[in-house]
Amino acid sequence: MEEFKKDVLNNQQENSVPLQEPKKRNHKRKPRTKVAKGQERPEEKDATEMNTSQQGDEKSEANADEKGKKKRSHYKKKVNKKAVISSTTVAGNETESVPEISVVGKQSEEIEVFDYEELEEALGGPVELDKLPSVFFAPDLTTKSKKKRPGMEKSRSVENEIKPDFESKKNSTAAQGKGRYSAVPPPKDLTVERKGKSKKSGNQSKPKIFGKVQNQEERLKNVEEDQHRKSEKQHKKKIRKDTENEFKISTPSVKLPTKKDKKSFASGKETNQKYKQITFVKETTDKAQHKPVSLDGNIKLKSSSSADKSTKQESVVKEYCHPYDVLNGRKNRIRFDRYLDPKICEKKIKENDSKMYIGTLRINKRNRIDAYVTTDKLESDIFIFGIRDRNRALEGDTVYVELVDLDKVWEKKKENMIRKREQKSQEEIEVDEKSKPKYAGKVVAVANSRKDRVFSGIITISRNGATTSDTNNDDKSIDNVAEEVDVIEDLAHADENIETVEQTDHDSLQPKDINKNSSTEKKNNIRMVWFKPIDKRVPLMGIPLRLAPPDIVENEAKYTNLLVVVRIQKWPIDSLTPLGAFVRELGHIGNIPAETEAILSDNGISEIPFSKKALKGLPPTPWSIEQAEINKRRDLRDTRIFTIDPATAKDLDDAVHVTKLDENEFEVGVHIADVSHFVKQHTALDHEAFDRGTSTYLCDRVIPMLPSLLCEELCSLNPGVDRLAFSVIWKMDGVGNIKETWFGKTVIRSCAKLSYDDAQSVIEGNGLPETVTIKDHKSTEVEQDIIYLFNMSKKMRERRFSNGALSINSIRLSFKLNELGEPYEVSIYEQKDANRLIEEFMLRANMSVAEKITEHYPNEALLRQHSPPHEKSLNEFLKIAENLGYSFDSSSAGSLQESFNAIESEDAKAVLKLLAVKPMQRAKYFCTGSFETTKFRHYALNVPLYTHFTSPIRRFADIIVHRQLEAALLGKKTCSYKKDVVQKTASHCNERKEGAKNSQDMNLQLYLTHYLYNLEKETGKHVICNAIVTQVLKDAFDILVPEYGLEKRIHMDSIPIEKYVYDAAKNSQSVYWKEGIDSSWEWDQKRRNDEDAVVPVGEMIALDNEEEKDDCQIALVKIPEELLGKNVLDEENRMQKFDTFSKLNVRIQVNVERSPPVVNVYPINPFM
């Protein structure tokens, strides 16, 4: 090694050449600092100070140096050398140098060097080396550092000759100019030793003297130090890249022209690279509106000159790029369209662009290829077909949608339905032009998505194990599992901030291994695991191994039946599946607490303790009302006020009273807990209550919106204690007509806590139970008050329905739990007269408050509206009712209610009400200034203005309404909320309320499945129930189990029958059972797993209508003789007939080994 280093040094000394004119350089370098004329550069200033001689003064020496530089540049001559470094130039604005090494023995080239003899004569004699000015030498050709150090650089010619890395620097450029670095190595006698930066001090004892010669050991030491420094730089650079933000935009998905390409365009030369025209947004420092600028390959940045002509600032022209659209060097196939700038979308909406709309995305649970966007600007939903047009948006996202050609989308939809029919899909699919939507669109941007969104499911190593049968690959070209595996692993590498994306070994996920068991996969090559969500509307996710559970590879069996929570990290533009990250474990499948946590996670319900900051906002305990506060309010503590709530309620937020003033005049009051007194605006508690939005009621507990100190104590209107309230008091006649209304803050003291059953006992004439405690008043007086209120509420209800109100209630279940938290008893929640009594006065209070706040704040009032039913779904319901012989008037809510009232059969009325619920939309909060007045109306209540005021303990929207009502009563010009803030609050409350409602419904189904499972397990008998047929289709029929409120669809191929006959005219289905075989989940699973299973033959009775014949997909036959009679059962042919409203016996089987648990319902074979 030592001999090699000596040979290198000797070779350097032999090939040293005199200093050339510094006209070219062969490396990229950060531009030097521009200075005004007459000023000295920082580099030259530092170098001059370092090499100043002790003789003479600094001013005269600087002048001499400047003259010497000018004279030396005119004296040159040509010489021949055995080995030279030549430079070539390329076309362009800047000169580029490409160093090359000549081979000894070949014809040598001529280069220009200084003639030192002539130079000496021109300078007037010999010059001492220590008086020469600073000379700058070429930097290391192999270095990648862009930092420029002021002062003199040491020679790196030794390293250049040891390892000439010229090929990597062919594109480097160097501008000609005075004082630039030379592209040739310096002579050995002009190299200097540099051990560090010189400190500017007046007492420098040993200044560096230019011209000090290094010995061989020192040169070798410098080479080793420089190599060590370079390795440290590269290591630090890698660490810095590893810690960069993963969403940092380094390269947009559309490749931008390089600097070389720009020069080629400018010079008129063509290039093979084709660039797509892209839109950029110019960012300005002022608040002016952004204007899109279209730029193509001939991009040129505009420059603006400042006051100082020597400096120029380039105006920043930046293209909008969503973080999900950044490729970071990957070269995968683009799967989706790039997101548009939301500002541009919003501008188009404000300009009433006929193609751009904003709305909420809803994905079909049965067929997640189909999605719909509900917008307030159109009368019908916008149909979104396929994952491409959905463009990575998730259920519940607020999205910008651009309308597209409906006919093209519909053709794709029909092709997809035909393909599914060919695959013998279990879903009921009908290619009917009547179901064609009015609008079709595609998602172009996501305006708002739920924060901290997480999903529950299971994690597997094998992608095949995570793939479900309902994968929504709507395009054959994208159905390539192996390609998607490559893409997702590239994304994993990119997520780890690896600079280059290389082809890695995918042994565990290649097509040859996809159909193998996970046990055969090579664990050392696993880079990704896969997450299968419970909610089928959520896509499959790939999780990089570093973001997965640490023991997933070694302990794969543990996660087979373990529920986990995963969040989406990002969904890149070049991947069909998003990247996820493991959050936490929930528990095993089938465990009620784990399943409940999964439900809450999927609906965005967070069950975490309140923060310390929020709890600090609570008043100290024990708490009592100050006299100063009482003096500000109306004192009603002596008034006979009581509450009527469910027996288990703890948060009592409403109370009522009635006082007879005259023969036909009453004072009726509704008193609501004054929560806004405790929850002040813009406090930590206010922000936390806003985030929660609403309380969530589960079977075993309540997840409160406010701390328990407020919910159950200070705000709850408990009997016998003074409480603050916000009251609405009317003067009414005996039938509930309002004569006068008063709003105000009050102090009340409830005398009794009554349940609905207690009040119902009084209404039925049985009086209050003996267990009820009445404080400070007589029980007979309370009973009389209940009768007064009931009589008025009954008249108010009749009047409300006669004015066009509609009431359609779905079935609600109620459970009783044992000590272990498992259900042992279930019942259907039934509304009684006591419930309707409270309902009427709460509705009237909400309407009165809505009228008051809208009058004072017409643009900022927070109201609640209910839109009419979906037109398409409503027409389907009307068609079903007509086929069953019932005529419905759907012109208004009132006419629809009258149609229901005309039905005599209670079974038919129950079934039709159940079918009528499906077209109905959910009511929503809104700000009056954000909608037209025609949108204010509440469809079901049939009133022009409505809001929520009566439940501030469990609804944040009610707290906002309380604040607005208080501001109106105080005569304030503003309600302390701007229109945009109110609308955002309304949207947030809608989202939280829907999440809470879905959580409650899913939790009820969870407890029902466990109840049915335990019932069969404990009794050892099958669970057999009565059912009603609600709808008959061509190859299926729907049933309702009234006892448990279960709705299921029975497919013909899921039961053991030989054939079935559909009669469209009578809307009936006749099935022919197999002998001795009963339907069950076991038989159905065996049939599904048997490839040779025989599908029952479907037949249809011949129709006179040619259109229906063309639409029919099963064989047409004449009416069989056994169907001519009215018999429901034909024992000779083992035939059973199903009509709408017909009753049958069904068997219920539950599978708790899946998440969520599945309830299977099968009709009983009556011929067993």
TrEMBL record:
Which Enzyme Commission numbers does its entry carry? 3.1.13.-
Q: Where is this site: Important for catalytic activity?
A: D653
Q: Name one GO cellular component term.
A: P-body
Q: Example GO biological process term? A: nuclear-transcribed mRNA catabolic process
Return the PROSITE patterns for the record.
Answer: RIBONUCLEASE_II (PS01175)
Start-end of Basic and acidic residues biased regions: 37-48, 56-68, 150-170, 215-229, 503-519
The residues listed in the UniProt record as binding Mg(2+), with positions renumbered to this chain, are: D645, D654
> So which cofactors does this thing need?
Mg(2+); Mn(2+)
Q: Where is this region: Disordered?
A: 1-101, 138-269, 286-310, 500-519
Instruction: Tell me a Gene Ontology molecular-function term this record carries.
Output: 3'-5'-RNA exonuclease activity
* Pfam families, per database record: Dis3l2_C_term (PF17877), OB_Dis3 (PF17849), RNB (PF00773)
By its UniProt entry, which InterPro entries does this protein fall under?
A: Dis3_CSD2 (IPR041505), DIS3L2 (IPR028591), Dis3l2-like_C (IPR041093), NA-bd_OB-fold (IPR012340), RNase_II/R (IPR001900), RNase_II/R_CS (IPR022966), RNR_Ribonuclease (IPR050180)
Q: What does this protein do?
A: 3'-5'-exoribonuclease that specifically recognizes RNAs polyuridylated at their 3' end and mediates their degradation. Component of an exosome-independent RNA degradation pathway that mediates degradation of cytoplasmic mRNAs that have been deadenylated and subsequently uridylated at their 3'.
Put simply, this protein is called: DIS3-like exonuclease 2
